[in-house]
User: Fold this.
Amino acid sequence: RRLSAAAANGGTDAANPPQAPQPQAQAPAQGAAAQQPAQAQGHPAEQAAQPQANANLPLGVRNNNPLNIVDLGRLGPWEGQEGVNGGFARFGDPVSGLRAGAITIISHQTRHNRNTVQEIISRHANTSPENEQTRYAQHVANALGVRPGDEINTQDPETLRIMMRAMIEFENGRTAAGMYTDDDIRNGANAGITHHSRRQNR
Assistant:
């Protein structure tokens, strides 16, 4: 199971609670990583390649793992994983990290029967305080144009892309999330859907 960004950074959300979420177009991103300096520029692959110069970037960006997916341990590395940093998988490129995030989100629904936004987020951030999970789910639901208790289809490419964008914002902050293009996220989402389809057809 994965840790939320807030838990990974010592629960800074508890000390600096984010504002209540508003619709995606208006709200600042939330979560512990939203406290990071708003100085990140350029593509995340370029930023991750210069870790010392970008030490203040969110851990997820430095790891090319914006959804903060944990290392699988004995189950073996994720495709494209190059190591572990802070308990989270560190990837060689952003799309590999996004692919792992997409696979994880789809698995929350297909393997663990989590069908609503709230259920999926509660599993994804299962070590976070309940109030943070609620804010997280509301932020994602706002982006999707649904309610937290509404069921969604994580294998729909556009639904998954929008959901991942909102989750990246909450996990890392809006400035860092802006470093990921829609094509980056779409490619990662499609790779995750393809992975799941191949496993179903085995």
Summary: DSSP finds ten helices and two strands in the chain. The longest helix spans residues 182-200.
